[in-house]
Structure formats: C-alpha cells, structure tokens
Amino acid sequence: MGLPALEFSDCYLDSPQFRERLKSHEAELDKTNKFIKELIKDGKALVQALKSLSTAKRKFADSLNDFKFQCIGDAETDDEICIAKSLQEFAAVLQNLEDERTRMIENANDVLILPLERFRKEQISAAKEAKKKYDKETEKYCGVLEKHLSLSAKKKEAHLHEADNQVDNVRQHFYEVSLEYVFKVQEVQERKMFDFVEPLLAFLQGLFTYYHHGYELAKDFNHFKTDLTISIQNTRNRFESTRSEVESLMRKMKENPHEHKSISQHLMEGYLFVLEKRSFVSTWVKYYCTYHREPKRVTMVLFDPKSGGKMGEEESFILKSCTRRKTDSIEKRFCFDVEAMDRPGVITMQALSEEDRRLWMEAMDGREPVYNLNRDSQQPLFAHIQKRKDIFESLSPGIDEQGLYRIAGVNSKVQKLLSLTMDPKTCADVELDSPEWEIKTITSAIKHYLRVLPAPLMTYQYQRSFIKAAKMDNPETRVTEIHTLVHRLPEKNRQMLELLVNHLANVASHHHQNLMTIANLGVVFGPTLLRPQEETVAAIMDIKFQNIVVEILIEHHERIFQQVPNSADGPNNMPSNQSRRRSTESKAPSCSERPLTLFHTPTHSQKGMNTAFVSVIVSTSTTSPSPTSPRSPSWPMFSAPSSPHPVSSASSDSSPVSVSGRKAIALYACKAEHESELSFIAGTVFLNVHASREPGWLEGTLDGRKGLIPENYVEFL
C-alpha cells in the first residue's frame, strides 16, 4: 500500500489521523534523505578509490536493490511500476559490471553526485525547514487558543472582541503554514520519482560509454533504458499537470477556506474541550471528537498536538440529547451540554468558537437552528441525441492539423458557437463547414461543452469503478472490466460516449499528421469524461488513471461498443501468409504510445450548459481510416512541444529513397515490434544508413547490429 494522500481540508481539522498520515510522509522523506546521503557517499568512494572499486560498487548496487519507492495512492501506473523497479535493474547491471572488473568512470561526480546533492539540498532541506515552521506554528496556535478559551465571559465585550480577533489571526496563519507544509511534502514525494532516478540513469549511461567490457551489457540494457526514459518523461508530464491542479486547489483553500472545508451530512468531527472532575478539581481536557449522525454515536480521543501527538484511549457513547449552555450559567464561552444513553450525568463541552458550536449543535439536533447544505438538483442528462450528416465533412479538412484538441480556439468565437448551437431557434441554421468556424473553434466547443455538463458523461456513479478498472494489473482484465462498465451506463450516456469515442479513434488514426496519439487524447478527455464529484488531492492523483480509461476506450472502441459484455472474445484469426506489414498497417495506436512531451493547453471550467452539442459534433465521426504510411512504427515521441512533424525523404507510397552509407540521427524514439527492426531513443546516431527493400523503411547499423529504421523518424547528417 502506498503513502496516503494528504487532503488540504484535513489541515483545518488537524485530526490525529491526519497527523499520523503526515508522519508517514515525513518518515518517507527521512528515509529518502538518509538513502541519498548513503548513495552519495558510496558514489564518491567509487570515484576516488580505484583499489576499493569492487567493494564500493557492490555496496552501491545493494543500496539500490534494497530501496523501494512509495507512491501516493493505492495503485501505480505502468510507468510508475517501471520506475519503481528501475533501481533493482540498475543494481543488477552494476553487479554484472563488477564481474568484468572494468575501470572507474571519470564523470560520475557531474552526472550523479551533484544532482543528488542538489535534490537533497533544494528539495528535502526545504521540506525540513517547512516542518520546523509548521511545528512552531502548531505550538503557538495551541497556546494562544488555550489562553483565549480560558478568558472569562464576564470580561468586557471590547476585550473579548480583541481576543477573538487575535485568535483568528493566529489560526489563519497556522492554517496557511499547514497548507504550505502539506503541499511541499507531497511535492517532494512526487518530484523524487524523476529528479532522483534521472541522475542514476545518466550515471549508467556514462558507464556504458567508458567501459569497453560493458559494451555487450549496454546493448542488453538498451531496451529497458528506452522504456524507462519514456516512463520518466510520462511521470514528469503527469507531475506538471498534477502539481498545477494541487497548487490551484491550495490557492482556493487559502482564499475561501470555509467553502472548501470538508463538511459531511453523516459525520461531524473536530476538537472539543470536555469538563472533567479530577481529584476533586474541575479541569478542561482537550479531546478530538467524532459524531456519527446515523447511530448517534460520539467518539472521543484524548489528543494534544503540543505533547508530541500521543493518542489516548478511545471513548464512545450514544447521544441522547444536546442542549446549548447559556452564557450566564457557566464561566466559559461556546459551551453546550450532552446527555448519553449509556452513561449517567451531563457532559459539558466547549467548542472552539461560536460558529463551531453552531455546527456541533446542528449535527446533534440541538436547540440551535439546523442549516441544511444546498444540493444541486440533477437534471436528466440527455433529452435527445441530435444527428446531422454534415458534421464529419466539417471536421475532415482539419483532421490532420497538429495539436487537434490541444490548441484552443478564440474564446469569443467558441462562446458564440455554443450559444447558437444551444438555442433551439438557431441550432438548425448553424453551418459548421462555413469558413467562420475554424476546426479549433469546433473542438474547443466540444471540450467546453463536456466540461460544463451537470454530471460527467461517464457519470459520478461509475467514476470510481472506472478508476479501479484502470488500476488492475492485467491489461486484458482492464479492458474487460471497462467494457462491462460502459454497458452499465444509462442508454443516452452510452450512445453519446460511443459517438465521441468513434470520433476520437478517427482522430488517433491520423496521429502521424496531427500528433494526437491515443495517449494525447487520453490526457485531453480523461479529466473531462471522468471528473470526480469532489475536488481533492487524491482525486487529482487519479487523473493518470482517468487518462488510461479513455485510452482503452479509444483503442478497443469496436469491441467495447459493438459487442455485448461477456461475449467470447476469440483471437483474430489471420491468414498465415499475410505479411507483417499488413498486420501493422491496420493496427491502431496502442495504449503504450507515450509522447515524451505533450502539448500544454490551459483549460477553463464553467457550468450551466446542456448536452445536445457533442452529439452534433461527433455523430458521424464513426469511421477510422487506416494510416497512409505503409507500416506505422510504434509510439512516436516528440522531444519538445515545437518539435517538427516527421518529414519523410520519400512519400509513403513511393519507392525507397536512394541513400547509401550515410549517417542519420533519430528525431523520435521507436520501439521495435519485430526482430528485424531496431529500438532507439531520440538522438541516437545510426551508421551506414541505406535504402531498404520495404517502402517507408531504411536499413542502418546501431551498436554493431543491422536492422530496419522508420524512414520518417530520422534525419540524415
């Protein structure tokens, strides 16, 4: 089980459970810090002591093998699993190199030691400083609060008002410090997944360069290195989007803390001071109390953050009644009395403020008025699905535009198109093939329309089920479970989803031209089609699994929407004499297609639109033509958002280009699907590149091995 997500709303409750979760993150940071220190020490010994090279390398490898990554959340993506096992792979390589007794690499200090020291100083040290500040503010807030609550109600009103303001200021500052600390802790936990692994990967690459005897081992390692590079970049891309979402949520919490506090209709919890008689003296004891409305059970746990966070034994009782305590009947403020069904006497409790007392009284059905939380009424999702035959023609001219669905249209035009389409009087008159409506305007309107639906297209009811399906270990099981869930959706939702996914499959089939692979489309539509009902840190961490669900829908759209679940999905029997060129020619981009860098387009969330628009846009986009190239290489990757579109030296349907014995450099990465093909990453240099008998492919030499290279993935030097 990974580390639990730290919710910003828990900073306001400051519960014992929250403190325990925070401790687990702190312990993981300490563990990482100690491990990095040990790793740096071992690395320096490796560089400086040639005579102890063998011992130092084995110890270093053992350290890598023993360390295990802890990810936030209850499941890991395939990329995170790849990164998590990378340390064990590195350790195996180092052990193998030690058997060869090769020499010390000269640049280990630059590629390994300095980045790790920088990560430790800039990231982990910053988290430690934030912890010191958080602990200091905790002690200050608790002290001021206790002093404030001990004020007599008989004090002058001006004095009490001034004291209230002072406590509010201290409390607000404590909440801000707490939010910043939680944000920093989770940021470091996420950042180490790539800032920590990349130096190690660079160190291993240096070993392959300087060790002659490691040459054969480097070739064997190259496949895993390619996968790991992609996984690291995917993780980095997800981190950037996730970090911005989490940071945005933190800002919302700072600006409107009361609107984002977690208030449940079934549960009330927080700190209360309970009046107890000990040794014939009445004292106020601080408890963390939880009240469950359904069984009317009150649970109290003795806990004081100032005392190191030690928890006392849990006490509970069934609530009988709750009565507000009049100010003139007790010296303390914010008090109320409760009676229990299973214990005698009256229990006097003191809330932290008048508002806090009101919430407790409301929850316990006391004499204070009850304020019901507003609930948005859920309108029927679809009244009908409109179909128009000219939509596909209007989108066809721009199907090859780079960044389709990534590049946003002009907001004023998008809003105009939406207003015209949503108006029954003008809907039929909208001509989408008119020059007035650019392709990016239409695609932006589709995305905006789906975002502002009262409920996501794939419904809140099944949102968690789709996420759980994406977290399954077996890829085939994922597809089967998602197939079943899609057919559980309401009929109108499923029809609308089918129209949209068929259209996206058509877009993905042109990914060599528009650069919108299945993975890119998953990034665009995952958070929209499967948005959570509540915006939390844990929900943001699940965005990567929302993307995977959309990828599976697109890749397997024919099976999912055209076949009934639980039907026999036998293998596709193909003629034995069919060439592998043909089998790859009709193959849609797979879920493993991961671009190194994605387009970044800001999104804006608005509400209040109905659901008749998407069907107009995608109703006829149900066909997926095959790519135009003779054979589509696996997962093209782009090194920067501005990367040029792969330019072939000859068209796909022309004869091979006439080149012989030249050098070429890879513009993109490619993973081999057959033994005759070469796997490589961007920047790889090939020798003796010349024309191949297969159109669209070249032959070249890499690390002494000859093989096929996609023609439009390289550039001649």
From TrEMBL:
Mind telling me which InterPro entries this protein's record contains? AH/BAR_dom_sf (IPR027267), BAR_dom (IPR004148), GRAF_BAR (IPR035483), GRAF_fam (IPR047234), PH-like_dom_sf (IPR011993), PH_domain (IPR001849), PH_GRAF (IPR047225), Rho_GTPase_activation_prot (IPR008936)
Positions the record marks as coiled coil are 87-173
Q: Where in the cell is it found?
A: Cell junction, Focal adhesion; Cytoplasm, Cytoskeleton; Endosome membrane
- UniProt keyword annotation of Cytoplasm present: yes
Report residue spans for region: Disordered.
563-604, 620-657
- Domain SH3 stretches: 659-717
For the biological process aspect of GO, one term held by this record is:
signal transduction
Keyword annotations for this protein, in alphabetical order, are: Cell junction, Coiled coil, Cytoplasm, Cytoskeleton, Endosome, GTPase activation, Membrane, SH3 domain
Q: Which SMART domains is this protein grouped with?
A: PH, RhoGAP, SH3
Read off the Pfam families from this record.
BAR_3, PH, RhoGAP, SH3_9
Q: Which residues form the PH domain?
A: 265-369
UniProt GO MF annotations = GTPase activator activity
Gene3D superfamilies reported for this sequence? Arfaptin homology (AH) domain/BAR domain, Pleckstrin-homology domain (PH domain)/Phosphotyrosine-binding domain (PTB), Rho GTPase activation protein, SH3 Domains
List compositional bias (Polar residues) regions by residue number: 563-578
Domain Rho-GAP intervals? 371-561
Query: What is the name listed in the Swiss-Prot or TrEMBL entry for this protein?
Result: Rho GTPase-activating protein 26
Q: Which organism is it from?
A: Oryzias latipes (Japanese rice fish)
